[in-house]
């Protein structure tokens, strides 16, 4: 049975300019075939395959203040075993460095 674990998560409010910048950087990384996530002293580098599953979901919820929207973009892919080993090793090294 496979195990799912979160290795990076970021939540919070940002101004529209920051969100646009993040999406542009994300698009550039995808074009280059490599994606890097940094948070504090933790860095995760991922190689991107040529084909990725994408899921786009838009929810709306009516509230007293108005309609609240939530847009989710999810990218999913399978990495080769070699890449998984390298990513896990890097994540473990980063975790050890934080201690």
Number of E-type strands = 4
Q: Give me the secondary-structure category.
A: alpha+beta
Terminal Cα separation, in Å? Answer: 30 Å
Low-pLDDT ranges = 94-99
Query: Mind summarizing the main beta sheet?
Result: 2 strands, antiparallel
Q: Give, in order, the helices and strands.
A: HEEEEH
Radius of gyration: 16 Å
Q: Treating each run of at least 4 consecutive H or I residues as one helix, how many helices?
A: 2
Provide the number of structural domains.
Answer: 1
Helix content: 25-40%
The whole-number mean of residue pLDDT values reads 84
Description:
- With about 100 residues, the protein is an alpha+beta fold.
- The protein has helices spanning about 15-30, 80-99; strands at about 35-40, 40-45, 55-65, 65-75.
- It has one domain.
- The chain is about 35% helix and about 35% strand.
- The chain has a two-stranded antiparallel sheet with strand order 1-2. Strands 3-4 form a two-stranded antiparallel ribbon.
- Strand 1 (about 35-40) and strand 2 form a beta hairpin.
Please outline the helices and strands.
Elements: H1 16-32, E1 34-39, E2 42-47, E3 53-63, E4 66-76, H2 81-98
Antiparallel strand pairs: 1-2, 3-4
């Amino acid at each position: 049975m496979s195990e799912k674990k979160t290795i990076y998560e970021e939540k919070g409010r940002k101004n529209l300019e920051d969100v646009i910048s993040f999406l542009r950087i994300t698009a550039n990384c995808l074009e280059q075939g490599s994606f890097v996530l940094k948070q504090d002293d933790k860095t995760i580098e991922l190689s991107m395959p040529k084909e990725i599953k994408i899921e786009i979901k838009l929810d709306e919820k009516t509230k007293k203040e108005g309609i609240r929207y939530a847009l989710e973009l999810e990218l999913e892919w399978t990495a080769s075993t070699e890449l998984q080993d390298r990513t896990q090793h890097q994540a473990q090294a980063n975790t050890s460095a934080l201690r």
